[in-house]
Amino acid sequence: MSPVWSLVVGLLLLLLWVRHRGLEAVLVHHRWVFVCFFLMPLSILFDVYYQLRAWAVWRLHSAPRQHGQRVRNIQAQVREWKKEGSKRYMCTGRPGWLTVSLRVGKYKKTHKNIMINLMDVLDVDSERQVVRVEPLVTMGQLTAYLNPMGWTIPVVPELDDLTVGGLIMGTGIESSSHIYGLFQHTCVAYELVLADGSLVRCSPTENSDLFYAVPWSCGTLGFLVAAEIKMIPAKKYVRLHYQPVRGLQKICEKFTEESKKKENSFVEGLVYSLEEAVIMTGVLTDEAEQSKINRIGNYYKPWFFKHVEQYLKEDRTGTEYIPSRHYYHRHTRSIFWELQDIIPFGNNPVFRYLFGWMVPPKISLLKLTQGEAIRKLYEQHHVVQDMLVPMKSLEKSIQTFHDDLHVYPLWLCPFILPNNPGMVHPKGDEAELYVDIGAYGEPKRKQFEARASMRQMEKFVRSMHGFQMLYADCYMTREEFWDMFDGSLYHKLREEMNCKDAFPEVYDKICKAARH
């Protein structure tokens, strides 16, 4: 039998099995079947389309010419909304399933959708060391564009599909953030279409209040149409050192010590249990020992978090040279460690060699096809949260994560938080070192109940003067939310710019207590 006929017969048998079991049962209990046979090939087609589109735009140099017209079209839509009587709130017309956030944006069905088709790199200014981009440019797209020119951006948040707009209106972080801060702190200017249809540019010296209020506002002050981001020279490799550490106190001491060293280009920790972790420190370099080069981003390579775990299991340190772009997107193939819950055999060498080139499936397609049953299952028995707490409370925070969630691995990423105006800043008058603790997976705590457990976690984070990333499920009341975040500048601008009739308050847009 020819390979084509074998494939046809296999697909027919698969369809008969799905029909016998029922589609919903297959999607819930055997989701890997749907992901492997449908979503992974479809994800490849998505990637090919966007890569061809980006190549065509680059060859034709059409992005800068068309940008102005696209912005005028957005302004026209906003003015049309005003003519209609401003009866509904506005939001972007991008479908909710296309966002990387696992939250389902039900407001899209009731708000006025403003179509924003802005997904191109506009200009690279080598003299100013600034790149100007549209909001739907992704991290994968941007690094692929800049690296051949010898540039990169200081903070490259991990997943390929994260967009510039999402990282500004929400937030973004990477293992270089102990030097550069959050993604918003690497931006030098924003351009927005406001509620009256006007186009405004803001920076630390021009409309500065708006510049500092935009991050974390989730699109509730205006529509972002362009951003200017700092660039730094790119180097070929990251020299990465792996250090297993045992004992919670020693883990926290070592991680804090390395996070304070500016000579470390990157600092990251993976905590595999309450008493076991691997602390990684990296330095950008153009030179590498050939025998120690590890192209970890190649499709047949082990998932990064599994590779790191080997140093813990073998109780040994090690140093490798990882190509820079592979390092920047090191957790992409396994979506950190979320993919192991969807494709349990995904890190098997046979699967990696045969099908690893199709991994990962698009998060947006996973959302689109998850169905109500899976959504409820994830909501009650799955955690995807990033909590930002002062570094001085790291030990107490890890212990609390262990007691309340018991999810491992935990991701540790340090960042410096400047004392700038806006929703997120340190309690004191000076910049402070913080840490992002990321928990992604199924809680093993026996008494875990999504709402009660997360409210307890949110209370703890507020008591530490920490912050919750707003892409995730948030269970706080309005009063609790504004106790966590500083809303003084945000509310002042919403009043001054007549946003109250144009956009919902950020709390109403993202918090479960407001959305249900």
At a glance:
The protein is an alpha+beta fold. It is built from 21 helices and 17 strands.
Overview of the molecule:
The chain is of the alpha+beta class and 516 residues long. Among the domains are: 64-233, Uridine Diphospho-n-acetylenolpyruvylglucosamine Reductase, domain 3; 237-372, no CATH class. The protein is 40% helix and 19% strand. It has 21 helices and 17 strands. It has helices at residues 3-21, 23-29, 31-60, 63-83, 139-146, 164-169, 177-180, 208-213, 248-259, 304-313, 324-328, 339-342, 349-355, 363-368, 371-381, 394-404, 450-463, 478-484, 488-496, 506-510, 512-515; strands at 90-92, 112-114, 121-125, 130-133, 151-152, 187-193, 199-202, 223-230, 232-233, 237-246, 266-273, 276-285, 318-323, 383-390, 410-417, 432-441, 467-468. It has an eight-stranded antiparallel β-sheet with strand order 13-10-12-11-15-16-14-17, with helices on both faces. The protein has a five-stranded antiparallel β-sheet with strand order 3-4-8-6-7. Strand 6 and strand 7 form a beta hairpin. Helix 2 packs across helix 3 and helix 16 packs antiparallel against helix 17 (450-463). It is globular and about 65 Å long. The model has no long low-confidence stretch (mean pLDDT 88). It catalyses: lanosterol + NADPH + H(+) = 24,25-dihydrolanosterol + NADP(+); 5alpha-cholest-8-en-3beta-ol + NADP(+) = zymosterol + NADPH + H(+). Belongs to the FAD-binding oxidoreductase/transferase type 4 family. GO terms for molecular function: Delta24(24-1) sterol reductase activity; Delta24-sterol reductase activity; FAD binding.
